Amino acid sequence: MINSEMEHSWRQEGNILLRDDERIDDLQRNHYGIIQRKGTFCFGMDAVLLSGFAVVKPGEKALDLGTGTGVIPILLAAKEPSDGTCQFIGLEIQRTVAAIALKKALEEDLPNLQLICGDGEDLQEYFEDGEVAKMYLNFSDPWPKKRHAKRRLTYKTFLATYQQILQDQGAIELKTDNMGLFEFSLESMNNYGMIFDGVWLDLHHSEENEHNVETEYEQKFAAKGQPIYKLIANFK
């Protein structure tokens, strides 16, 4: 079998080694850039601009569960001071996807960014009780079959773990294009006794979109005209 990596030529830009199908886009955040690969999905600059509205207070930690290629934590980390007062953590279970996020992160050299290749079921191995201030669940696997309901990241056993690692009044922000997962999440969180700070059935046509940080999946789904659902909830 031919190694596809060997089919490409490489070039040096400063201290960064790039494939012939890769480029560095300016993040417009403290002189940072991000590696993007031609022929695959590249996130747009709208997401960079929108990330300026996301707020994490000094001393807080924010967790992006199922971070994918790491766009959200990288954008948020790049716009904050690099003194480590705010920490952004991305956790991804798929090794190949996590490797892409790691490559981006290594080139950025962001001291307030951490990436973990791990399972959302093992959060208590990575975080102390009350350590995390905010969690993001962006376009998680909907696991549509009923027999797989326990694998959904808003199933009650996951919620119990989130409650343990989140601070008092710590928020969970969920976005999805999947109505079934959204309805399940609303019911599961309500049954668990969580408080909803906001529910949006068409995020991109609401005032909440002014503060929205777009993911890769979100941009693809929105471009097809699919509504994006969002909720923000916390534990009593």
Sequence stretches where pLDDT stays below 50 over 5 or more residues: 1-5, 45-53
Major beta sheet, strand line-up: 7-6-5-8-9-11-10
Major β-sheet annotation = 7 strands, mixed
How much of the sequence lies in strands comes to 25-35%
What's the end-to-end separation, in Å? Answer: 55 Å
Fold and architecture overview:
The chain has 236 residues and is an alpha/beta fold. It is built from seven helices and eleven strands. Strands 7-6-5-8-9-11-10 form a seven-stranded mixed sheet, with helices on both faces. The N terminus is likely disordered.
What's this model, at a glance?
The protein is α/β, with parallel strands linked by helices and 236 residues long.
Keywords, separated by commas or semicolons:
236 residues, alpha/beta, 7-stranded mixed beta sheet, two-stranded antiparallel ribbon, 7 helices, 11 strands, 28% helix, globular, disordered N terminus
Topology of helices and strands:
Blueprint: E1 10-13, E2 16-19, E3 22-26, E4 33-37, H1 45-50, E5 61-65, H2 71-79, E6 87-92, H3 95-108, E7 113-117, H4 123-126, E8 132-138, H5 156-165, E9 166-176, H6 179-192, E10 195-200, H7 216-223, E11 229-234
Parallel strand pairs: 5-6, 5-8, 6-7, 8-9
Antiparallel strand pairs: 1-2, 3-4, 9-11, 10-11
